[in-house]
Design brief:
Blueprint (H helix, E strand, L loop, with lengths): L1 E6 L6 H15 L3 E6 L4 H5 L6 E3 L8 H14 L3 E4 L2 H13 L7 E6 L9 H8 L3 E4 L2 H9 L7 E3 L6 H6 L5 H4 L8 E5 L8 H11 L7 E5 L5 H10 L6 E5 L4 H5 L4 E4 L8 H8 L4 E4 L14 E4 L4 H12 L2 H18 L2 H18 L6
Parallel strand pairs: 1-2, 1-4, 2-3, 4-5, 5-6, 6-7, 8-9, 8-11, 9-10, 11-12, 12-13
Helix pairs in contact: 1-15, 3-4, 9-13, 12-14
Length: 369
């Protein structure tokens, strides 16, 4: 099976990590997998150069020139599967396949990683109607697709995965030294872009409650984004400059993750959240909002705690509970590692993706499509 993967993003977030895992994982099990990516993007730059790495940028969802170039790539490479990993990639692939497609027409697969509704316009309806199979990363994302009138028969659930054993083997980073924190201060950490969906404002609000009960705690937010000025203002307003740190983007984020005590997730929407999986692989319990696919990841009261979104008091209470009970923290951390090893590995994700290709390929002969 030869699959061609498309991701148009320039940034590096969880989705791009999953694309890289998918392409390299398929190659590892003996399948050919090519990647089309923006040459100025982080994903392109992190992949090995070669014939199966195709540079192609797009100016947005409707970019006829980019779609025409992709159609030429499809005619040249003739993949069995075209797998688009983001909405703009779906648009480019759908348009390219409508311009000219090799015969037999490749199966068109789209990953869906977000639980936001599909845009309600004619172009969006058309592009998604071209998709043969949707790979939803969680039941919550599948349910959202069904609510948006995607036939359930076209959807398969393939949970995201992380390279668990690589994370386990990583050296233990020193977040205390990196940020000049007091040597023995407990750390609540999180990873995520500083955007509205992650709702770091509620996490900062919770921090103001927690420090009144655990005075030496430090909160570290690893990530960068448009809301940094607002968060800095909030931190200053709540007099939390000594307790809450916006650490920005760090290349060594996984090593530093090993130095936190508890992982916090305050998102209002999540398809699933790979950073949460990373924390579990680092043997950390989580206090996370019960949104989207998160309840499929966190086993409440076993690997961490689930709390309502936008509820700083509930988030703070569970954080305090873990910070004051080291044995419970260790116990939940061990359970988290066991769960991610069992359910959320890259190997499992790749095998399920390959199985979906095979199953859908048998069900849908495409020669006359």
């Amino acid at each position: 099976m030869f699959s061609l993967h498309i991701d148009t993003a320039r940034t590096w977030r969880g989705g791009q990590s999953q694309v890289r895992y998918t392409v390299l994982g398929l190659r590892a099990i003996g399948q050919r997998a090519a990647l089309v990516a923006d040459p100025a993007g982080a994903l392109f730059q992190r992949m090995t150069e070669g014939l199966d790495l195709v540079p192609l940028s797009t100016r947005g969802e409707i970019d006829i020139a980019a779609a025409w170039r992709l159609s030429r790539v499809l005619k040249q490479l003739r993949p069995d599967v075209v797998h688009a990993h983001d909405p703009a990639g779906v648009a480019m692939a759908a348009t390219a396949l409508s311009i000219t497609a090799p015969r037999p027409r490749p199966m068109f697969v789209a990953s869906r990683r977000i639980e936001f509704p599909i845009a309600r316009n004619s172009f969006s309806a058309w592009k998604y109607s071209q998709v043969d199979c949707f790979l939803a990363i969680s039941r919550a994302v599948r349910d959202r697709l069904v609510a948006d009138r995607i036939p359930a028969s076209k959807i398969e659930i393939v949970h995201e995965g992380v390279d668990v054993e690589r994370i386990v083997a990583l050296p233990h980073g020193n977040l205390h030294a990196a940020l000049f924190l007091p040597t023995h201060s407990p750390i609540v950490g999180t990873i995520g872009a500083l955007v509205a969906q992650k709702d770091h404002h509620t996490l900062v609000e919770a921090a103001a409650i927690v420090v009144k009960q655990v005075s030496d705690v430090r909160f570290v937010i690893l990530g960068e984004g448009e809301l940094r000025p607002q968060l800095e203002k909030q931190i200053k307003h709540l007099h939390l400059e000594r307790h809450v740190f916006l650490a920005g983007f760090r290349a060594d984020v996984l090593e530093l993750l090993k130095d936190i005590d508890v992982f916090a997730l305050s998102s209002t929407h999540e398809g699933m959240c790979t950073s949460l999986l990373d924390a579990m692989a680092a043997e950390k319990p989580a206090v996370a909002t019960s949104v989207g696919g998160v309840p499929e990841v966190v086993d409440d009261t076993e690997t961490g705690f689930l709390v309502p979104p936008r509820d700083a008091a509930a988030l703070a209470a569970r954080l305090v509970q873990l910070l004051k009970d080291q044995e419970l923290t260790r116990q939940m951390g061990r359970a988290a590692l066991a769960r991610v090893r069992r359910v959320f590995t890259v190997e499992r994700m790749v095998q399920q993706t390959a199985a979906a290709y095979e199953r859908r390929g048998r069900q849908s002969p495409r020669s006359g499509h």
